[in-house]
């Protein structure tokens, strides 16, 4: 009986005992949400905030000449080089070595290429041998003439004493005169041989192609192993030149002006040139000459315009738009200083006139400047800013010195 009671008591459920605690799932969910928030904040700091303030930028341009000017005529043309040459060898030969590449700067007299000099060197050796032979012949004739002159003098004395016949003496004199003539011929042969040696040496030098003037290589026309000839192309296997060299200091602009408007153009007239590749860059120039010939087909007259600025960005065959300017005689013609920037780039900060200059790290520098007149949508900056520097156009109020910026699309 007691055993049965004990078994029933073991099977009884204790309802006063507390249930086991549930798993801590909520805590882990909270920690996961916090980690996502922290990662999102870090990503914003890394990729959002560091991108900088979005701004518009412009490049400061040189102010150029002075006085007030208005455009009386616009025309288009191309940049051309007054000094340009396709360099070739003087002789026909196989290219042994080419020492140029496109874009290379070369100086006058610099070696550009070499041809195979085997034939020319053999001609030089032959000319040297011919010169030695002529000199040897000259020496033999000189020795014979010395003996003949001594014999003629001796026979003259014997003939005066009637010891030899007059015929013998005359024969000795004739031998002497013959050798004198042979000596003159031998001397001329030596001079001819010397000239031949000099010409053969020039032939060796002609296998070396040098730059006729300083400039930049714009085209490389030949490769090692090809045949070059200054006479003709010779089909598709013979080149006529080694390369093309251009004197970049001789660049100017040629424009075609309609016959109806050529009367507005005068020599020394100021011009403002704008390259199609750089529409915001105004290049000061002036008219050099008006070519005294008209194109019957196009009814135009060619005008040469000299550029007053030299820059590596200006290359031959670039398209150019030029504006022929008319100066206002009532305005001061003193040269203008400083640079030109969009008027919105010059702002006031704490009572000072400043611009925000963007450096190579895409950070801005708050720079005080001395501003000048406003002309149209541009404003002159007389000091504090150099041509070519990048400025922020319409900087926002929250932009501060040292802030990172990015250019608006």
Automatic annotation (TrEMBL):
Under the heading SUPFAM superfamilies, the entry gives: HlyD-like secretion proteins (SSF111369)
**What region holds the CusB-like beta-barrel domain?**
253-324
* Domain of life the protein comes from: Bacteria
Keywords, A to Z, come to: Coiled coil, Membrane, Transmembrane, Transmembrane helix
Keyword Transmembrane in the entry? The reply is yes
Q: Which GO terms describe its molecular function?
A: efflux transmembrane transporter activity
Which GO CC annotations does the UniProt entry carry?
efflux pump complex
User: Where's the YknX-like C-terminal permuted SH3-like domain?
Assistant: 339-406
Where do transmembrane segments lie in this chain? 27-47
Is this entry keyworded Lipoprotein?
no
Residues of the region (Disordered) are 386-409
Q: Which residues lie in Basic and acidic residues bias regions?
A: 398-409
One Pfam family name is BSH_RND
**What are the coiled-coil residue ranges?**
131-189
What are the Multidrug resistance protein MdtA-like barrel-sandwich hybrid domain coordinates in residue numbering? 83-229
- What family name appears in the similarity comment? Belongs to the membrane fusion protein (MFP) (TC 8.A.1) family.
Q: What is this protein called?
A: Efflux transporter periplasmic adaptor subunit
